[in-house]
Amino acid sequence: MLGIKDTNSIIGGKESLRKLYKYSILYILANAIFMYYELYYMALLPVAFAVIAYTLISLDRVLLLIVFFVPLSIPLREIVPNLEVDFYLPTEPLLFGILLLFILKVLTEKNFDRRIAYHPVSLAVYFSLMWIFITSISSTMPLVSFKFLLARLWFVAAFYFLATQLFRRSQHIKNYIWMYVLPFIFVIGYSFNRHILEGLFDENAAHYVMSPFYNDHTSYAAMLAMFVPVLIGMVTKSEYKQTQKFLIWVVLAIFITALGFSYTRAAWLSLVGALGVWVLIRLKIKFRYIAMLASALVIIFLSFQTDIMIELNRNKQDSSRDIEKHIKSMANIRTDASNLERLNRWNCAIRMFEEKPILGWGPGTYMFQYAGFQFSYEKTIISTNAGDMGNAHSEYIGPLAESGVLGSLSFILILITSVITGLRAYRNAQEKEIKMLALSCTLGLITYFLHGFLNNFLDTDKASAPFWGFIAILVAIDVYHSKKEVGSSLSSVGSPQTPAESTQ
């Protein structure tokens, strides 16, 4: 046990101890004055210093802690209504700090792994960020666009670039997944409890029972769908013990049940699409043939779109508690308000794109600009004249309006490079469990890429943590785990460990 003399030597001697006492007394006095005037923010200063110190010492644990808080984070407006600015607590302030620290480490140490920095996925990410920056300068609302850019930067810095270094150790891949899944189970339980208390397990209740943790049932269901392939992979192919596998079966059952009661047709459809991709992979059909098939389907749709639209207009089945009718309502573009409103948003986005096809209106500005592009005959019972009810409902069409043709192309490039990397990582992985993680994370991403045709959530921490995290997993497997290589922790962003350290 350290004595006074030992303590003095550690903190720098008696002079340093006097300074510590002096600053502590000054802080206590300042905090007392602030509290007298009912200003309590100063009390958070020691917490902030503690978080910064812990982040500098153990960045990998802080990153995992942030992932843990993502499903539990809530908007600031839930605590302080009517604010002009909103962000998620506690995650986004921590992510901003992570971004600053990441930039500092890269600039000072200059040893970030070049294999990650120049990976095709990273190049696609750079292109996307560069174009967001350019279109933020030309934006009709620069403040909104630069806030959008800042948020995208801290999501990418933490959940992609730093995460790739975390995943040098394969155990951290599973840690990352479970750090999202475990608190997500709490959110599912909270949602079920609200269902039960209100005596409702119908579609109407499904729209709000997950609030305030998730904005609505679509983002909630999209995340459930992303993790279903991963949980299936873990329970069927992993090296967990039988007791652990039983618990994963329970978690999987909870996720599938929650997905069913979310009444989110897009999420259900995305899982069916992921299953189709799994079949193609198992049949060992090459990616170029899959791309050719997808292109052929698009051409067929464009060639026969008039006949297809006539057939779809004959469907009058609205959303329903009956699962069969609810599935049938997916193709109802005549009377289903949800489908019609989505078409209204898409049409607005296309009109905005036609007016500014190169640079767009600015990242993040769609929700503030689309009102004037609505046609009266396309409005629905859930449309608003103010145009204040959210985004374009598409990861592909939304960027067209906000950042022009290259904005949409940048997301498609991330899609293509990520899927190709995932398939290569699956094919080249040496270990059975790594192979499973590569395949299941690829399929999890497929669910989001498919869901992205109908919704977009990458401006939130809820979707960004698994989306960029899964991409980071695939890139890390491709770079570090396709051959017998060793890794490092985040304490040294780019430098490798010794074999002994990598196995600890």
Based on CA atoms alone, the radius of gyration comes out at 25 Å
Helix share of residues?
Answer: 55-70%
Quaternary organization: single chain
Q: Which strand-content bin applies to the residues?
A: under 5%
User: How confident is the prediction overall: mean pLDDT?
Assistant: 81
Shape: globular
SS summary, helix count: 23
SSE string: HHHHEHEHHHHHHHHHHHHHHHHHH
Distance between the termini: 28 Å
- How many domains would you count in the coordinates? 2
Major sheet details = 2 strands, antiparallel
> If strands are numbered along the chain, what order do they take across the biggest sheet?
1-2
Number of strands: 2
SSE class: mainly alpha
Low-confidence stretches: 1-12, 326-333, 485-489, 491-504
Model description:
- The chain is mainly alpha-helical.
- It has two domains: 36 residues; 339 residues, no CATH class.
- The protein is 69% helix and 1% strand.
- A two-stranded antiparallel ribbon has the order 1-2.
- The longest helix has 32 residues.
- The radius of gyration is 25 Å and the shape is globular.
- The N terminus and C terminus are likely disordered.
